């Protein structure tokens, strides 16, 4: 097995597959740093009992590290041109299954069946242009996901773990934290990739809650309120919700019940306060 965490091995592999061309539309940036790869695998806390879903394996750099630790790895790759490369780089691993396709178009129940119906750990170096749709699809799914350990744009990782009141805090923070505890475990500079991205990256681990930290009788309403509260950050919560179709008298009554001033802005409310506001507006 060639260690693809070394740049020269990655380059040699790609040179043997002259038909491959980097596709900007797929956000392809391959990791070439063994230390970072070890950090990702360690953060995922993999054992031989674990089933791993990897999204966007690329040339198999991270996949090799996952296969060394986990019992089963299902790697879903959208780019057909990468399949022959993956078949070569992962030839020594009989616990890896390669599936060509777009993760957002897959039947998730069928993926779970391929992994034996066991609890799933998702590990991935995600394409930055589609990070949020992939994460929310996984978090909102009924898959038996234990954790999601992913490389994302550093700015996005900071938003996912942000607390109320900060500039990074927003609807993504609340959406992620409704489903999982988020922790950035490593910052990764551009030189760790081939080709180099223009932005810094970070590895973030999302450990899914067995029981959500707040109870929302109407999740759709909760997230409608959250989105409305951050659509125009400079506006007060009252104005943001009014623009989303809520009656002003009902908004002010709900804020009074929660002992919040009418001048409050959405960026200062915690997830628990948004859940309480949702319940008050539904009543």
Counted beta strands: 9
General shape: elongated
State the order of secondary-structure elements, H for helix, E for strand: HEHEHEHEHEHEHHEEEHHHH
For the termini, the CA-CA separation is: 61 Å
Q: What proportion of the residues form beta strands (DSSP E)?
A: 15-25%
Parts with pLDDT < 50 across at least 5 consecutive residues: none
Report on the structure:
The chain is α/β, with parallel strands linked by helices and 283 residues long. Helix 2 (34-43) packs across helix 3, helix 6 runs parallel beside helix 8 (171-179) and helix 9 packs across helix 10 (237-243). The strands form two sheets. A seven-stranded mixed beta sheet has the order 4-3-2-5-6-9-7, sandwiched between helices. A two-stranded antiparallel ribbon has the order 1-8. The protein is built from twelve helices and nine strands. Strand 2, helix 3 (61-69) and strand 3 (72-77) form a beta-alpha-beta unit. The longest helix is centred in the last third of the chain and has 12 residues, at 219-230.
Q: What is this structure's SSE topology?
A:
Blueprint (H helix, E strand, L loop, with lengths): L6 H10 L13 E2 L2 H10 L7 E5 L5 H9 L2 E6 L5 H7 L6 E5 L7 H7 L5 E6 L5 H10 L4 E9 H7 L10 H9 E9 L4 E2 L6 E8 L10 H12 L6 H7 L4 H10 L13 H12 L1
Helix pairs in contact: 2-3, 6-8, 9-10, 9-12
Keywords:
single chain; 283 residues; alpha/beta; two-stranded antiparallel ribbon; 18% strand; elongated
Quickly describe the structure:
This protein is of the alpha/beta class and 283 residues long. Helix content is 39%, strand content 18%. It has twelve helices and nine strands.
């Amino acid at each position: 097995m060639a260690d693809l965490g070394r740049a020269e091995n990655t380059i040699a592999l790609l040179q043997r597959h002259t038909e491959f061309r980097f596709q900007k539309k797929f956000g392809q940036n391959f990791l070439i740093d063994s230390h970072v790869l070890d950090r990702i695998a360690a953060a995922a806390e993999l054992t031989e009992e674990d089933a791993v879903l990897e999204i966007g394996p690329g040339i198999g750099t991270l996949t090799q590290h996952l296969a060394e630790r986990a019992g089963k790895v299902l790697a879903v790759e959208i780019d057909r041109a990468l399949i022959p490369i993956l078949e070569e780089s992962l030839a020594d691993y009989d616990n890896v299954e390669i599936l060509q396709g777009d993760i957002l178009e897959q039947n998730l129940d069928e993926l779970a069946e391929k992994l034996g119906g066991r609890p799933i750990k998702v590990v991935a170096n995600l394409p930055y242009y589609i990070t949020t749709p992939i994460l929310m699809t996984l978090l909102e799914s009924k898959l038996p996901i234990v954790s999601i350990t992913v490389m994302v744009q550093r700015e996005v990782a900071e938003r996912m773990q942000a607390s109320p009141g900060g500039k990074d805090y927003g609807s993504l923070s609340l959406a992620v934290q409704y489903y999982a505890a988020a922790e950035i475990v490593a910052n990764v500079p551009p030189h760790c990739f081939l080709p180099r991205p223009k932005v810094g990256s970070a590895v973030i681990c999302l450990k899914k809650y067995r029981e959500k930290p707040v109870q929302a009788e109407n999740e759709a309403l909760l997230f409608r309120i959250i989105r409305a509260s951050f659509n125009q950050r400079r506006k007060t919560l009252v104005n943001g919700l009014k623009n989303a179709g809520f009656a002003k008298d009902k908004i002010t009554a709900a804020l009074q019940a929660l002992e919040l001033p009418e001048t409050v802005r959405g960026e200062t409310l915690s997830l628990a306060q948004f859940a309480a506001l949702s319940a008050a507006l539904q009543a």
